[in-house]
């Protein structure tokens, strides 16, 4: 088996041969007319599309390849009598991972698979590093998150998840915009951090000769906008907390906060419930969402339960009657992460969250 260095060298040698033939290996542009998903619906018609090669199979005077873009995958069906000898022979200089553009007719193979039969093709980008086939369908969490580009390339579910996230954010914006909220951007670099009980990331601003902090929440600046005369504001933005790292904690994450004048907590619950239902309809197409083996039904009026009541029901703790010292002692016995200085209300919330 060839080493990675040998595979890279072989690809570099192919690139040199292509360049001697007048092919740069890195085309400046390509006028892509159709996506792969659109191409799959254009049987019998001519198309011009592009993508990355994910497989190459030679059978005499025919070469099969799988072409993928962000919308899907389609088979390429190269025939020597259509391409001509030179273009067909140059297919040997292509590798899995190369980007190519093709022009041809959408047809069906003898096996019945919708394919493009190219009349012409162009190498758009020569890939000098081989795709890690042995990692196909990456499952190792460390590899997935450290080499996210490979995760996206090889796991279609991850790419779908990215698309769903974009739809969720778009639906949240449309809901709040239609409710009369104004989207704003507030400072990320701050002289004083606040709005949450969390440790900040600290940095230094050379021009001002001052210590600065990455925000831990947008709350304080949003409230200043309310004080400045705005009735309804919201922000979707990055916040940073210099704390733990696990499945539910990340030092950098996206937060949504919204504030409304003249509204109580019941109104805020109305907005939250309405937002979830709107997002579900826009993204999932309805109010029933499947999560693993469970189906969550978001329809109807959501039950509203007091935090102290559910703690008492589930844990048998009467947190209203307990002192701050008793609550603190309970949290420590349960190994809850505390920053120090928590109020009674914050301790109750910590127990509820835990």
UniProtKB/TrEMBL annotation:
Protein name listed in UniProt: Aminoacyl-transfer RNA synthetases class-II family profile domain-containing protein
Record-annotated Aminoacyl-transfer RNA synthetases class-II family profile domain positions: 164-339
Pfam family, one: tRNA-synt_2
MF (Gene Ontology): ATP binding; lysine-tRNA ligase activity; tRNA binding
InterPro entries: Aa-tRNA-synt_II (IPR004364), aa-tRNA-synth_II (IPR006195), aa-tRNA-synth_II/BPL/LPL (IPR045864), Lys-tRNA-ligase_II_N (IPR044136), Lys-tRNA-synth_II_C (IPR018149), NA-bd_OB-fold (IPR012340), NA-bd_OB_tRNA (IPR004365)
UniProt lineage: Bacteria, Candidatus Roizmaniibacteriota
BP GO terms, sorted: lysyl-tRNA aminoacylation
Recorded GO CC terms: cytosol
Keywords: Aminoacyl-tRNA synthetase, ATP-binding, Ligase, Nucleotide-binding
Domain of life: Bacteria
